[in-house]
Amino acid sequence: MRAKGSSKLQTPNFRATPDPKPLMEGSRFWKLKLFHCFAGVAAGLALLALPLAAHGVERFPPPEFDPGYKMPATTVPAARAELLSYVDVAVLVAALALASYLALMKRSRDGLLALSVFSLLYFGFYQKGCVCAIGSVQDAALAVFNSGYVVPLTTLAFFLLPLVFAAFFGRTFCAAVCPMGAIQDLALLKPVKTPSWLDSALGVLPFVYLGAGILFAATGSAFIICEYDPFVALFRRSGSYGMIALGAAFLIVGIFIGRPYCRFLCPYGALLGLVSRFAKWNVTLSPMDCLHCQICDTACPYGAIADPMLKDPHPNPHRRTRRLIALAALLPLLVVLGGWFGGRLSVPFSRMHATVSLAEQIAAEDAGKPGEPTDASKAFRQTGRPVEELYAEALRVRGGFAIGSRWFGAFVGLVIGATLISVSAPRKQSVYDPDPADCVSCGRCYIHCPKEIVRVKRIAGKNVIPLTPVRGG
Amino acid sequence: MNPLLQQIQDRREFLRSGVRYALLGALAAVAGALAARRTSQSRCPQIKLCRGCASLPACSLPQALEIKAAARRS
């Protein structure tokens, strides 16, 4: 259930007691269970029905007109006024500032929830999910690697501002400003904790996706992060059947597993997590007087509370040290292997580029290989452009992929190696506290930590609660 | 707090601050370079929506000129 307020201790999202059944009457318990089941199934069916409505527009083939029919001129809706894009940036700044205030100073879960709803409505449904900070990574990458591309100022602001805020206040963008995070946060009804080994393993994926997004954007092939954005079709109430179904699937999974896209795919979240490690202020609980009650750990649906290392669990610390040294030695090998493997993938990757794909199609047609000509190949032949020119252009693009894919592979190798080292390295933490890289500053732990509740009550007379201390400070 | 522990904390915070400001510096450099390129070239707020762009009548980018020429021909 959603948190109702921050003024009193509530039951954590996960079962703090082994079984709630003895706490209530048997028949009431089962009625509640049945209600939850029906509500979950109804919500799932409603989400799955969305694609049917959107798919309706593609059911009928276009009509055939008489030869004398004059096609009307194509009309397009007027573009959004430029001024409104600056309003969007102003709203983003205000939302980031408010989220940081609510997460770190006011420490209000209710406030963050209200801001999440606003962000979902404004950045999601009103702005239709575009421009978004997640996709802006690709604009920045394309602009860096392609001097001919001029990135719009508002897109640049959407890329930079959440990162700047993360450098000072942690992932407050994820807390209540990102519409994709907000929709998943609101969908989380029955959280199930994922094992930490699975979190660590899947935590590699956002970096792989980030690398792939940069590779394809930098080579001018595709903006895959936008293309495969699972929620933008829901925000626009329109899109391909597959993408709406994917969005619905993410939301259904998100009923049980907290923010699956944010934690296991979001490339911008990976960047924010990196920057957030060095943030000046982060979400912290009461580091000095932690009771070790583990309620915060139980309440966090994202597995972001780092467990304390009260005693060294490893039976043989020397063995652990040897393993760390071996992993550190393995790291360069993984980078080199990744680079080699990435190089091998450069040809299939390059087929994502329209020029390479067209050149291969033309070559196959000219070689008499079976297959129908595509619209693109027909259009190319109508231009009368020499094929050699197309092949030369395709080779140039493929050369870019040969370099980029090696870098991408090396980056993936580095991420895998660094993850292996980080899970093997001993932690020096002595209290339960949110991990700055994983914590999305949702504020759930505040309303569950008994010490935090006492602290808030103690200083309730003051208007503003002091800023949380620096992690580890 | 133990002075040694305090010293370690201070050193750690110093390193964290160093990395933080280095990251911010890098971001500022990238932003500056991209913004400078933006001001040195013609600016287009709606690069993918040329035909519906409010700036199209006054725009002199090649793609806009093509669109306007095509509109005149039709």
Overview of this protein structure:
The complex is a heterodimer of chains A (473) and B (74). By secondary structure, chain A is mainly alpha-helical. Helices cover 60% and strands 1% of the residues of chain A. Chain A is built from 21 helices and two strands. Chain A has a two-stranded antiparallel ribbon. Chain A is globular. The two termini of chain A are 34 Å apart. In chain A, 40% of the residues are buried. The N terminus and C terminus of chain A are likely disordered. With 74 residues, chain B is an all-alpha fold. Chain B is rod-shaped and about 80 Å long. Chain B starts with a helix and ends with a helix. At the A-B interface, helix 4 and helix 5 of A face helix 1 of B.
List the helices and strands and how they pair.
The complex is a heterodimer of chains A (about 475) and B (about 70).
Chain A: H1 26-55, H2 82-105, H3 109-126, H4 133-145, H5 153-169, H6 172-176, H7 179-187, H8 196-202, H9 205-218, H10 224-227, H11 232-236, H12 241-256, H13 260-264, H14 267-276, H15 295-299, E1 305-306, H16 317-344, H17 346-350, H18 354-366, H19 375-383, H20 387-424, E2 433-434, H21 450-458
Antiparallel strand pairs in A: 1-2
Chain B: H1 3-40, H2 62-73
Brief summary of the model shown:
The complex is a heterodimer of chains A (473) and B (74). Chain A has 473 residues and is mostly helical. Helices cover 60% and strands 1% of the residues of chain A.
Main attributes of the structure:
heterodimer, A: 473 residues, 3 domains, two-stranded antiparallel ribbon, 2 strands, 60% helix, globular, B: 74 residues, mainly alpha, 2 domains, rod-shaped
